[in-house]
Amino acid sequence: MGEGPESKPGDVHASRLKSLGTLVAAMAALVAAIGSWFKPQDQSVNKASYEALSASMKDLSDQVDKDHDEIVALRGYTEGALRMVSAPASSVSAAGTKDAGQSTVTLHAVGVIEPASSSRRALDVRPPRSAPPSFQDVMQKAKN
Hints:
Elements: H1 9-38, H2 44-86, H3 119-124, H4 135-143
């Protein structure tokens, strides 16, 4: 009845020592984890990458503003060109008289065609610019 491996006094002692070793290792890991939680971290790499990304976002925002202005100007140019090409020429004329060397003058009225959609007004409004917050602001919000 008492011949199992647990019944030997050396095995019980070895099992307790092994359990104690596991408990000490777990406690050491817990202390290290808690210590790393409260240890101040080096944020220099994070700050450098955040500032690089912020500068890239600002450059991108500037490029978007420039592209927006160019699109609005191009749309105005194309609408004006289309109005000139597609506008019907009416036969409003002021007949000049052929007096001594003068020629006949013919005037053409150009109709102005306004677009039915409001897409031009939508393009005229520049989207709001948003600057990214500073690294210190982000870190303050992260701490709170």
